[in-house]
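## Example record

The block below lists the input lines for one assembly entry, exactly as stored, with component labels intact.
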Amino acid sequence: MPTKHEIALRLAEAHSNLEPGIVKVFSIHEAPEQEQLESTPIKLLEINTNTSPSGIIPIQFGPNPLFDVPYPSVIVEITPSEFELLHRNELRLPSGWVIGEQLYGTSA
Amino acid sequence: MASTFDWATAYARQAQADFQTFGQLQSLKIPECHKLQFLQMACEKLSKAHLCSNKSDPSTLQSSHAYVAKTLPIVLREHAASIRFDGDAARAVLKHAKHLAQEIELLAPAVQRGGLRPDNCEYPWESPNQTIHIPSDWQFECSRLLHQRHGNTVLKLISGAIRQLLA
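Predicted structure tokens for the full assembly:
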């Protein structure tokens, strides 16, 4: 079975291929003991120049084994300005969620 | 207490019923507003099904209609990716879906974008020149977008996304 990291990379690539406004994608992590569970969703933070500044709205998706996505996933889509607010702690992810590795896009 | 999965399934089932009714109304000679109302309700519930989580309160979700414009395009994009619908064709359809989602959200009377878009599927409204409009006479931008190229494909993606939730 593919790892969560492999699926996260694949989702990030697929989403950025479909939405030209996505400039960066990061993983979002929870505590390691949570991340080890298959039921803990893959979480992607997508920075999209074509989206509205609506704050942090986690959108849930179930596992989709038919299409080789065996884990649930969550997408949080924000604008580049909101990403700056996140960095300045003026916008916050849900409790226990931390921005992780960059999966797509050029580094700052 | 019901689980978030139960809530998501409930929203998805009602989205399916609303969307099927939208389909059944297409052949009837009735005002467009009635048909579009079922599309708006289906899309709102499809969006809310994806917003149910242990970090959200179902009662908060129920009280707002303003979830479609942000959430529906992401739901349809994820569905497109999962069925390997990609390339230029998919990008064009998803761009159209984003426009449509904004218009679908505006069909709910509570969503007026700061008073700039009072047109909706249910209640009469007054325009700046003091003319009263009623939904059953109105030409909706949403209808125009649905009949454009890619409109049908967006509807297929909505239908597929609902089915995927219930699979």
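Residues 4-104 of chain A form a domain with the Beta Polymerase; domain 2 fold (CATH 3.30.460). The first strand of chain A starts at residue 22 and ends at 29.
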